[in-house]
Amino acid sequence: MTALLEVRDLVTAYGKIEALKGVNLDVQQGSITCLLGPNGAGKTTLMMTIAGILRPRIGSIRFAGEEIAGRPPHAIVAGGAALVPENRLVFPNMTVLDNLHAGAYQRKDDFASDIERLFTRFPRLKERSTQLAGTLSGGEQQMLAVARALMSRPKLLLMDEPSLGLAPLVVEEIFRIITQLHQDGVSIFLVEQNAHMALKVAQHFYLMEQGKVTFSGTPGALAEDEVIRRAYLGSARA
Amino acid sequence: MGVLTNIGLISFVALSAYLLILAGEMSFGQQGFFGVGAYTAGVATAMYGVPLPIAALMAMGAGAAAAFLVGLPTLRLRGLYFAMATLAAAEMLRIVFELIHFQREIDGEPVGPDGTQGFRGIRWVFENGVEREGYLAMVWGLLFVVVILFLIVERSKLGATLRMLGEDPELARMLGIHVERFKLGVVATAGALAALGGALYAHHNTYIEPRNFDIMLGVHSLAYALIGGLGTVFGPLLGVLIDIGALEGSRVFHGYRMIVFGGLVAVLLIFRPRGLLDERVVHWLKRRLA
Amino acid sequence: MILDLIQNSFDGLAMGASYALLAVGFTLVFGVLRRVNLSYGPAIMFGCYAATWVSFSFHSNIFLLLGIAVLGSVLAGTYVERLCFAPHHKGSAIAAMVASFALWMQFEEVVTLVMPKHLYDFPPMFDAEPLAIGPLSLRAEALVMLACALAICFALHRMLYRSRFGLALRAVTDAPVAAQLAGINVPRVLLLVFLLASAIGGLAGWLIVSTHTQVTPMLGMWSTLKGLLAMMIGGLGSLPGAVIGGLALGVLEAHSQWFLGPQARDLIAYLLLFVLLAWRPRWMTTSHG
Questions:
Q1: Which of A137, B275, C249, C286 is a good FRET partner for A11, with 20 to 30 A between their CA atoms?
Q2: Are A222 and A66 in contact (CB under 8 A)?
Q3: What's the confidence (pLDDT) of residue A238?
Q4: C142: in domain
Q5: Exposed e or buried b for every residue in B140-158, given b needs 16+ CB within 10 A?
Q6: A179: helix, coil or strand?
Q7: Which pLDDT score is estimated for A102?
Q8: What is the pLDDT of residue B55?
Q9: What is the mean pLDDT of residues C276-287?
């Protein structure tokens, strides 16, 4: 496998405070990679930097062999990486259908068949296609955010805490979709607090604390690490 | 000489706009209270023979009262809503000045506000033998007092509360500060400050008209505070000094003054969006001086 | 009395149509940027002065002048966007506003340097006499103004809901960060919105000056104030609101001027704004502001 995404020595700062203090990690082509870490570790900052919303101070982000650090977000979407942001961030005053159209903004080809396919995958969205996105439930909004990102036909899907604030059944649904997308060939880089669910799907794990990657390994290695198990898996055995 | 006096006079309005910015509010309407002060003091000295010091106090009272009345229904407004409400209030005041025809016969001449014709003969300063130098000293003396008061307040708990109110009103509320009452106090104080400037302005020019108090003055005072810097009370003064002192005072840019000034300001704000003397520079200066 | 009311209402609607166009331009920019462009009116004034200059120096074909007015406003608007708004997208709203005020001063000085008289004649749209319908008189310019306002609103509505650019514009207005993540080039959309608003402003300016057949430097401040007023009355940031706000302001002004005089007209307009702000009825707050 080759690395689809390579992050090297990445530093992102808010004023004088460095949220990322030299981050290094890889996402392999065709993998599901999961990033764990406590609140405030810099996970969202990392995602926003990869997506181009935040500018890194130093460091490199190579995506599909190209340097993308500091590029504007629309160029990164055009390059094939799409972020499903934390707290979903749909367009609340636009219809579900318009949300999907906006997701395909970059595309010049006909995307009607994509919408049909997404509607088969997310039947709830089809039922509500003319409703305003702001009126959907949290789970539906999350589905919409994922569907919107998929409209750009990304090679890499970045997902920032997709299960946050959702009911357990909905979380399972989300993870089922993640697995399906993976089977369809999309590489996925996932930020998740729900380590139990992540363990079932991801092939590689990183742990981030205070702006630095402090662990890198397979699910097996993760489950064997005593400290991580206490912090992220509670008393339960993996 | 005239330029120096003008710098002093306009500084009062600039400081009153600055005081509101500190409390997190942007006012387009301080010129209205400047006008209230000018008219009140003018009527008092020219029509009723009140000595200027007392008239200035009356002006401040009137300015505070007017600002209080404007502030009361607009307390909950923030940002553009507050700015527009203050603009509407100031424009209403200006139109009221245009509608006031209130004159008395003094020495066979009608004296008093005459609508759009303005208000002539506010001559207390000349009639009482105050030299131009003396008046200049008085204006700058009062300004000095105001600046000292600002400096004292900024170092006190009151100043910290003020900045907190500007940066995070919800936090201030949680800490038990009565946000509405506090803001009303700030609005009234800023009104009084602008009115004091107005009273002095009327007696310097001896003639005022409603047009003096239009939105141009209000936006200028906001601009002064922002150009000079929001980090210290000297910021707005620096802003006035740059505009009136360096550009109007010198004849170098005669005819092109606003083109030069406007361009400078726009470019400056790109690099220093909180003005020349912003919080960082002030912090750095304090450390160097200490 | 009844006739006066009808006549005033009609005149007010015509005036209100120009306010509505000004407010629509303001609202487009405010909707996506959350910033007030004080230089909006002065940029329009710049365009109208450019047209006046052309009419004196070369030719006074009304369509040529319209083109120059729109082009001048768009050029001035681009200058304002590049210098005052593009650098402050993520920064301070008040800095952007004060910067736009600084450019206002520039525009005023530029036009008065080139054309120093206080007042210039502007070629009228037509030489036609007002149409008399019974005892009422309808100026053809008023009809053109109303027709233009309606046409622009219709076109804008179609653009917003039928075009790719409209989709981008709505997305940026609704959730700017999400728009970036969806792959929309947000800075470019913002620039284009600014140009669109300036072009509408230029059209409004031309309609106003060719109806009044004169141009003064006051046009800048006047347009900014009327546009802001109409936008605020209509509820911040909604296009239909801006149109209704503009028309309502025009009708209100026409009646109060007729019955109470020009000073009372302005007083009542500001009083209405103040009361609306203090009272804050629902339609003013529910629009995202």
A1: B275
A2: no
A3: 39
A4: no
A5: bebbeebbeebeebeeeee
A6: helix
A7: 95
A8: 95
A9: 70
Helix (H, G, I), strand (E, B) or coil at B233: coil
pLDDT of residue B142: 94
Q: Between chains, do C263 and B258 touch, taking CB under 8 Å as contact?
A: no
Q: How many domains does chain C have?
A: 1
Q: Sorting pLDDT into bands at 50, 70 and 90, what band is C282? A: low
CA count, 13 A, side-chain hemisphere, A30: 5
Contact B226 C98 (CB under 8 A): yes
Q: What is the pLDDT of residue B232?
A: 86
Residue contact B273–C88, C-beta within 8 A:
yes
Distance from CA of C286 to the nearest CA of A (A): 12
Q: Which residues of B touch C36 (CB under 8 A)?
A: 80, 83
What pLDDT does C288 receive? 42
> ∠A224-A230-A235 over CA atoms, to 5°?
95
C-alpha C112/C-alpha C52 separation (Å) is: 13
Query: In this predicted model, what pLDDT tens digit does every residue of A52-84 receive, in sequence order?
Result: 999 999 999 999 999 999 899 999 999 999 999
CB crowding B85-108: b at 16 or more within 10 Å, else e: bbbbbbbbbbbbbbebeeeeeeee
Query: Residue C107: inside a domain, yes or no?
Result: yes
Mean pLDDT in residue range C130-155: 85
Residues 183-212 of A with CB under 8 A from C: none
Do B and C share at least 3 CB pairs under 8 Å?
yes
Residue A237 has pLDDT above 90, yes or no: no
Classify burial at A185, counting beta carbons within 10 Å of its beta carbon; exposed 0-12, middle 13-18, buried 19 or more: exposed
Using alpha carbons, select from A8, A31, A52, A51 the residue that is nearest to residue A213: A8
Q: Using a CB-CB distance cutoff of 8 angstroms, which residues of chain C are in contact with residue B92?
A: 267, 270-271, 274
In this structure, are residues C233 and C249 in contact, taking their beta carbons and an 8 Å threshold?
Answer: yes
Structure ipTM? 0.90
SS (H, E, C) B112-181: CCEHHHCECCCCHHHHCCCCHHHHHHHHHHHHHHHHHHHHHHHHCHHHHHHHHHHHCHHHHHHCCCCHHH
Q: Which residues of chain B have pLDDT under 50?
A: none
When mean pLDDT is compared across A115-119, B83-87, C132-136, the lowest value belongs to: C132-136
pLDDT tens column, A19-47? 999 999 999 999 999 999 888 899 999 99
pLDDT of C37 > 70? The answer is: yes
Residues C283, C29: contact at Cβ < 8 Å?
A: no
Query: A88 near A149, Cβ under 8 Å?
Result: no
SS3 content of chain B, % helix, strand, coil (to 5): 75, 5, 20
* Residue given tokens 């005081």 in the structure block: B19
- Nearest-CA neighbor of B186 among B68, B82, B93? B68
- pLDDT of C146 higher than 70: yes
Q: Which residue carries 């007729």 as its tokens?
A: C258
pLDDT surpassing 90 at residue C132: no
Interface B-C, measured as beta-carbon pairs within 8 A, has a size of: 114
CATH superfamily of A3-88+154-233: P-loop containing nucleotide triphosphate hydrolases (3.40.50.300)
User: How is residue A145 written in tokens?
Assistant: 């955010």
Whole-angstrom Cα distance, residue C215 to residue B171?
A: 50
The Cα–Cα gap between B179 and C134 comes to: 60
What is the spatial distance between Cα B131 and Cα A157, in angstroms, rounded to a whole number?
Answer: 78
Nearest C-alpha in B relative to C108:
B258
SS3 B93: helix
C133: left (phi over 0), alpha (psi -120 to 50) or beta: beta
Residue C190: pLDDT above 70? yes
**Predicted confidence band of residue A236 (pLDDT cuts 50, 70, 90):** very low
HSE-up (13 A, CA, CB side) for residue A198: 31
* d(CA A68, nearest CA chain C) in Å: 14
- Tell me: pLDDT of C287 over 70: no
